[in-house]
Specification:
The chain has a five-stranded mixed sheet with strand order 3-2-1-4-8, sandwiched between helices. By secondary structure, it is of the alpha/beta class. It has twelve helices and nine strands. Helix 9 packs antiparallel against helix 10, helix 9 packs across helix 11 and helix 10 runs antiparallel to helix 11. Strand 1, helix 1 and strand 2 form a beta-alpha-beta unit. The two termini are 27 Å apart.
């Protein structure tokens, strides 16, 4: 435990309303943590406030908005260069229990991504996204329910956990790499999970400890060209399937967009889809090259 060196990567953009809760929770951790702030060009007082009130944080200011995934890559790269044994990826609108990292370390096998149970910002309920995807789709769902009834805690395999709070050992980063540069915003965490599963890495959530994710401020997602484009990319680069099957998945996604648009009388969505499809088709070569990269083991995009 004494050799453990953990860096917390926070990608910020106009984060003032969460800075105290987020960084304050890291100060209260039972395991020492080093915050690395990658600021994507905040226009509020985020950077100045962190510099004054949280001088222990490493502050990496970016000249432009790199997006979530590439911003995290900047922070992860710094952590690895400074001998990190683990990184904790934490959203700017999230904060943690004092014993969260300590509890996650008890389940660390150096080959898996771990996450606590995600609660709402109020802490009075499990986050809806986490309940539906991480818990609801876990192959160990029934064991989780039994353990909950018995008051016991454990770790549970799952297919999907959003990247609001990911605990990743160095070994996994060196084999899987960083976030895929084909993703700017949306679906980069789904892509990373696809790669973990393909390469035989574990993905688990741990009960009995929590992070808090303040998503009440986030408006419901509405279809945009960017969102549709990233969903097409996500299906095309899924190395768990052959390129032919991936092409079928992208076609099925297009049919789903059409069906929803017609059912809800949102014909504008169809126009957005074809804009996204046009941009997607222009990336055919990049997608083929990307699939070759992520099929291999290595610290891709972190060197």
């Amino acid at each position: 435990m004494s050799a453990t060196k953990i860096y917390v990567i926070l990608v910020t953009y106009n984060a003032m309303q969460w800075v105290d809760r987020c960084l304050g929770s890291l100060r209260q951790s039972s395991i020492p943590l080093t915050p690395v702030i990658v600021d994507n060009g905040s226009t509020d007082q985020t950077v100045a406030y962190i510099r004054t009130h949280f001088p222990e944080a490493v502050l990496l200011e970016q000249a432009q908005n790199l997006g979530f995934g590439q911003g995290n890559n900047v922070g992860i790269r710094y952590a690895l260069q400074h001998d990190a044994t683990h990184v904790l990826l934490l959203n700017q609108d999230a904060w943690i229990d004092p014993d969260m990292v300590e509890r996650l370390l008890l389940h660390d096998d150096h080959n898996s991504l771990l996450s606590p149970v995600h609660l709402t910002g109020e802490g009075d309920a499990i986050d809806k996204n986490f309940r539906q995807n991480a818990i609801g789709r876990s192959p160990e769902y029934q064991r989780y329910l039994s353990d909950q009834a018995a008051g016991t805690t454990s770790k549970y395999a799952t297919r999907e956990i959003n990247a609001a709070c990911w605990f990743i050992p160095r070994e996994v980063l060196e084999e899987i790499g960083g976030f895929n540069p084909l993703f700017f915003h949306y679906a980069e965490d789904n892509d990373y999970l696809q790669r973990l599963h393909y390469h035989g890495k574990g993905v688990y959530f741990v009960s009995g400890t929590h992070c808090y994710h303040d998503r009440a401020h986030v408006p419901a997602k509405t279809p945009t060209e960017q969102l549709m484009y990233q969903q097409l990319i996500l299906r095309a680069v899924d190395i768990n399937y052959t390129p032919f099957v991936c092409s079928l998945h992208t076609m099925r996604y297009g049919l789903a967009v059409w069906h929803t648009a017609l059912a809800e009388h949102r014909l504008h969505d169809i126009a957005l889809y074809y804009q996204a499809k046009h941009r997607f088709c222009q990336q055919a070569k990049a997608i083929r090259e990307n699939r070759q990269i992520i099929h291999t083991i290595g610290a891709h995009w972190l060197l």
